[in-house]
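Q: Okay, next protein. This is Type II secretion system protein J (GspJ) from Undibacterium pigrum. I've checked the sequence twice, so it should be correct. Can you predict the 3D structure?
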Amino acid sequence: MRSKLTAGSKKHTSRLSAAGFTLIELLVAISILAIIAVLGWRGLDSIVRARVLLTAEMEQTRGMQLAFAQLENDCAHLVDASNFTGREVLSAVGPRLVMVRNVFEENQPTRLQVVVYRVRDGVLNRREMLPTRELAVLDQDWQSALADAEVSPSIALQSQVTGFEMRTWKEGENGWRNGGTELAGVEKPAPAPGIPFKSGKLTGLEISIQISGRELPATKVFLLGAV
């Protein structure tokens, strides 16, 4: 009787051993699961990082498009310097662009407005003065713009700007010049006796904006006074 019980218990124990997992098998399974989890986490992390970078790049591109669209509109409405003898209507010097534009509004007479683009602390800002028909007020706004006076609120157009360069194209010349101003009606020394000479008119403005993290700057050419 005892021998039969012993034989039965041994057979039952062997069945349990055959149906379960050994310690080595459990360790191998846990290791495989850990490897799969690490690979899955890395894949998810790379997807999240790529999405963050793509979103940031899309925001930069959108900001650049808005900045260029606003610049194109302002350049197209640049006033004709020949109507303002002895007054500057555009100044592209350093990281600052100042211009005088025409303002056309319904049921309103044409007015003049000083607009300033300025890079400060890595942010490209646009500031506009109140439209006016008074030349004295226009001159005051122009001087305030050149002095970087905070006389009106500014709007941030693009962040992470590391470079802001401008070149101008002048009638009668065969190449771009760095910066430039538009000042009409000012006589310059004559190249020969009795031959008057006036400075040519600026017709084009090239702006290059370098964004942090991008290899090449975004560059666009604008026509001045196209409207």
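A: Here is a summary of the prediction. Confidence is low (pLDDT under 50) at residues 185-198. Strands lie at 88-93, 96-103, 111-120, 123-128, 154-158, 161-170, 177-178, 180-183, 202-211, 218-223.
Q: Noted. On to the next one.
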